[in-house]
Design goal:
The protein is elongated, with a radius of gyration of 23 Å. The chain is of the alpha+beta class and about 100 residues long. The relative contact order is 0.19. It has a four-stranded mixed beta sheet. A two-stranded antiparallel sheet has the order 3-5. The protein is built from one helix and six strands; from the N terminus they run H-E-E-E-E-E-E. The chain is about 25% helix and about 35% strand. The N and C termini lie far apart (about 90 Å). The longest helix is centred in the N-terminal third of the chain and has 24 residues. The protein has a domain of about 60 residues: Listeria-Bacteroides repeat domain (Immunoglobulin-like), CATH 2.60.40.
């Protein structure tokens, strides 16, 4: 039978391990925010120096989604490596329907 001290030490070490893992995870991620018309659309925690595998594709009535762009005008695509906390903004093209005369 294990003593109270042994169980206490095991619990203590387990808690330290969990705290260490949480701290490591928080230090090893960047936060990517996707904004649509000035409002947050989606937020992702992305591991440092990795790519986003499933880039969101929003919809907006009367517009076609062109892509996600950062403040410098760089397009986010499947080859973009995330290297900092960043906000991407949706860019839209208006759908124009020409009426027949």
């Amino acid at each position: 039978m294990k003593s109270k001290w042994t169980i206490g030490i095991i619990v203590f070490l387990s808690i330290l391990l969990i705290i260490g893992m949480v701290i490591y995870f928080k230090l090893d991620v960047y936060y990517v925010t996707f904004a649509v018309d000035g409002a947050s659309y989606k937020e992702l925690d992305v591991r440092k120096n990795t790519k986003i595998s499933d880039i969101p594709k929003p919809e907006k009535e009367g517009y076609v989604f062109i892509g996600w762009y950062d403040e410098e005008g760089n397009l986010l695509d499947s080859s973009t490596v995330i290297q900092k906390n960043i906000v991407y903004y949706a860019r839209w093209g208006e759908i124009v329907i020409e009426e027949e005369s």
